[in-house]
Every structure is written in structure tokens, then in C-alpha cells.
Amino acid sequence: MTSLALLACLVTFTINKKMTEIFITNVQNEVQTKNILDFFKIVNPELKITLDLNETENSYPCGHTIIRVEGDKINAKSIVNMAKRLGYNCDILEDKICK
Fold this sequence. Notes:
Helix content: 25-40%
Largest sheet: 4 strands, antiparallel
């Protein structure tokens, strides 16, 4: 492979590469989900953001919902701060066993 072809492959890979960050939060219901997703999509229209309501029976952080953010550049600290400004707990998902 020539240097030019290798460079073209590297540029294509870099352009198509997406980041994914997973956060936990204490969003509890569909109304809160809509509010936080609408806000995030206005502030960060270039990001794909989804929220899964799942483990809400236990108290935070063991009971939590998941925010999944995909995009070329993700400022995790900004996502956490925005959620907190809206009144929700939010942290980057860590490997942890809850009891």
C-alpha cells in the first residue's frame, strides 16, 4: 500500500470514528426523560443522545437510568454539569457491584 493510500485510509477511519460515553442518572419517569433529552438535543444537536429508564427501584447510584451519548467529540464534564443544572444526579458509568 502506498503512503498516500495509507493516509487516505487513516483519514477515513478518523472521520468515521465515533465516541460513546455512558452516564448514570436518577431520572425517574417519561416526563423527566423528555425534558432532559429535549434540553441536551438543543444544546448539543450534533450528538446522538438516548436515555433508558431501567433500574429505578433502588436509590441512586445503584438504582439508576442510563444516558448514552454518541458523537465525534463528547465533553463528559459538560454532560454531567448540564444534568446537574437541571436537578439530576449524573456520573460517568463506572464498573461497580451494587448490593
